[in-house]
Structure formats: C-alpha cells, structure tokens
Request: fold
Amino acid sequence: MSRVRRRAAAVLSGLAAAAAAVLLDTPPTAAVAIPALYAGAGYYVAAHPDVVWGRERSRPDWTAGALGGGLTFGLLGLANADAPPWLLLFGFGFVVFGFATGVAYGRESRETGDATA
Reply:
C-alpha cells in the first residue's frame, strides 16, 4: 500500500477516535492519547491489512485469529469490570496498536534478517 494511503488511514482513524473520545466524555489526559493510539494503529493496519482481515481462506489465519481473540478477551474483561465506555475505547486501541506494530516489527525483522531493525 502506498505511503499516502497509510497516512490517510492514520489521519482518518485518529480523527474518528477523537470524535468517539469526545462523545464518550473521555478525561483530558486520555483524550489526547486515544487519537494518537488509533492513528498509529490505522497506519500499521493499512500497511498490513491481513492483521485484521486475514489472508488464508483455506486454513486458519493465526494472525487475524490472535487479534480477534485478544480483543474479545480484553474487552470482555473490561466490560465485566464495569469500566466506563471511554476505557473500552482506550483498551481496544491498545490491543490493535500493539498487535499491528508487533506484526509489522516481526515482518520487518524477517525481511532484513536483523531482529533490531
């Protein structure tokens, strides 16, 4: 995917997260972090769309499956803790950002042969 499309995905996801944060009465400290978190997640998901959508239709896709499982486990835990809606938004962003950047890092290090690349 082109760099322009990745940047557009970052801006759009950051703006959507900012709007959601405002609607959910997010505290100011989290309201700054949430759009940045989603912008980063949007960038990496646009670069590696199979993280969310999967790519293997003939057999299980462990990348997308792990993301779905992590989101389900984490958000159910937050919902059962009677967390406010803005915290669910924050938690979802952390999971997607962490997973997408981890996949991107792993793929980059595989391509370059350097785990620190």
